Amino acid sequence: MTCAIVTLLCGAASTLAPAPFAPPPQAGTAHYHVPSEALGAALRQIGAQANSEILFTPEEVAGKTAPAIDGDLTLDQALDRALTGSGLIARHLHGAIIIRRQAFSAQPDAERAGGAGDEIVVTGTRIHGAQPVGSHLIVVDRGAIDRSGHATTDEILKALPQNFGGGGNESTVGFTTANNASTNSGYGDSVNLRGLGVSSTLVLIDGNRPPLGGGAGTFVDLSMIPSSAIERIEVLADGASAIYGSDAVAGVVNVKLRDDFRGAETRFRLGGADGFDEIQASQLLGTSWRTGHATLGYEFYHRSRLSADDRIYATEDLRRFGGGDYRSDYANPATIIAADGSVYGVPRGQDGTELSADDLHAGAPNRADGRAGTDILPRIERQSFYASVTQTLTSWLDVTGQGFFADRHSSDRYFPSNYGGVVVTPANPFYVDPIGTGEPVTVHYDFRQDLGPVTNLAHVTSWGLAGSLLARIGAWSGDLHATYGTQRENARTGNVPNYVRLAEALADTDPATAYDLFGDGSFTNPQTIDTVRGFYDAVAHSRVWSTSLKFDGPLFTLPAGAVRMAVGGEYRHEWFGSTSTDDEFTPAPVDGGSAGFPLGRSITAGYAEVLVPVVAAAQRVPAIEQLTVSLAGRVEHYSDFGTTANPRFGLTWRPVHSITVRGTFGTSFRAPSFLDIRQGPGLSQYVPVPLPDPASATGTTNVLALFGNRPDIGPERATTWTAGLDVAPPLLGGATLTLTYFNIDYRDRIESVGGQYYSFLVERDRYAALIDDNPDPAVVAAYYADPNFQNPYGIAPGAIGAIIDGRTANLARVTERGLDFDLGYRWGQGASHYELGIDGTYLFAIKQRVTATAPTTETVSTIGNPVDLRLRGRASASLGHATIAGFVNFVDGYANTAVSPNQAVDSWTTVDVSMSYALDVLGGAFKGLRAGFSITNLLDAPPPYVENVTPFSAAGFDPEQASAAGRLVALNLVKSW
To answer: What pLDDT shows up at residue 6?
Structure first.
């Protein structure tokens, strides 16, 4: 062993020599007894007790301490326990075991115990065994996941300071319309790095693109991934389209599953907070044989609903907080609007049968809180299955297969969507005319006491298959890969009125069966209510399949080492379909149409990446201990919009051993989603309308307004560069500092400004690029003849003074600058070791421009956008069998610019703690059992007050920046068999 370590220290760390004198690791169990001590010493003891060679460099284990190990374990289980939280992993190589950092791997011809090939490719590079040059890779390993106290994959990622909570998340549905949150009909969860949009972060599972969800196919649904099956999560917060193609503008999140697990692990979690509880249970099984290994996993997760009634700030009446009263006059008892427009409130305490005009409250509409009886978080039940198998076919060829299936049911009580007042004629036996004219009245009525709460039910299924052939041809490897994935989302909105059948029930002259809107409560015949009950169904279906071929290996050798290259090609096909059924505005359910779907497209791509070691430590070049550069490029052709090419350059310079300077430069893109490019009947509208115009002598101008999607929508494009510094001061062993400055220029962003059409002529400077004054009469005539033309105001073609283009198009531009940082310190010896640290993101600016001629506005720390500062502090202690961890989360204050005058929103600070204890010392049934206890939001800090007003409702908090869950206490049990 001494000779092997000397070899490592002499410069062979990148190509570890085999150790033929060591026997292969045993598949069975042995009794290990290792006290908590320095990691290097613990690894030596494990190697001696297992009669196996374990290779490592002193630098990699310096300052790290292993927990005590005592019990009958396999060698892999003993190593897993020793390396927990160290950032290191164990890999088998020709009968020996190599301890490496997680960002590295064994050489391409490495073999696991039993001979199965081991190709580890880290996120941000296609070259296995290498780190992404110039970038900082954030790794959340299994130990960090367990210490976090979080149950689900999306919760784990929400804790990252680089991730903004806006967009498609279960907590934002119904509380905001920003960041496409309203399209999330399946109640999925996304990741939104840098706040640039959920479609601008690429999410991979074991390096594969999964099918898209979110109701409109706009993001990968993280909540479908079982957290118990995760080995680690790698986050590259840097543009990477040169490596991966579309969507990798803000960065890449790669979820690595536990596909090489040995033994059995049972997990159980029981958690609860004020208003809801959760249960999580999982089973993981893994085995290996001489030529392969297999893993099988299952997870069950249940969470009850969190009602708005359990949170004082989840209300439309914000007067108690100093805000407005946004309750609707659609109430029970109802509000009546007479023929002359006067308003009357129906009195309480009566059933509508004896109501007279004198009983009504003139000028006093009744009001109802739309949030009452609704949910902040839906009820969820999910089951997930995962399987993986790797088999060595020959000494140079391995085959790997993976399968994944997840099924989720969600139930959410939603606020009512009122489509206008209900007209009641004198034919209704309960009709009351406040002004005695005998004309029809309009009634604003809350149907929830009759029909029950408006309920959104969602059922989402997702499954995927992946297979690969890995061939080792000398120093090179070839990987033939294929994947298929599909996700289906069924969403039903129930307990809504069918307005056609309601009108018939209101026209019924029989008091026993007619609909009664004039009582205090529900007094209509139940059979009539059932007849009026309607629904709305939507089905979304996403599919993706791909195949790829990659070759990877050394080209030639320089004095600093081998120049390595990865080159490959890919073919991918994406498809999205959507259908709906509507039972609200017709006598019977009708097909709601396909909304321009299904749509599909094919993508072909070729890429190459080269890693060049310019200077190595052995060359003894002054001020350059190491200098490495990488160059990557990718060309992609999309069948629907054309070709895009993106390069990336990376540099890592280590002037001395303790300091690393790095940087990257490249371009990235996001392909338009199917939602952006869909066309078809009903999806475009060309409407002549009169608009306010200060430049007109009459104060208005007749314009032809265009709505829908432009047919020429292309990709969004970005230029990104970063500069970073990593410091590990020798005088402060265990201390580390990481800084990364990033600059993103994101242009041609797909934006819809049609909702602001009324301001086009008032703010001509802002919308000048979208206004065509004095248009060609032939162009106007063509629009008038189009099937999508509507003319509700009867405006003649010759009266059109301008054409305004409110269609979705490549309009906007965003520039973002900021700094990621991480400061940590680890120390300890013997049975105890400790860690302190803080990481965060500070945003200098986010400048947005909605059109080419619009002024640039600063949006950082405004509602709907990331705040300037997010921090996560950490402290942990390992004390023999016990582990204690604590976290402090800080979200800075911001401005609520959606209300006038603008409102200052306070910062939000929460504290999380977790504790666990290994019960092996008790022996017997407790062998391999670890019990844990976690509390998130220990101090039960409520979200800061925000006057959060949407076009449909209101609330007193902002779910994009803070959680309403409150203090959540959980018990965790993990049993290793």
So the answer is: 29
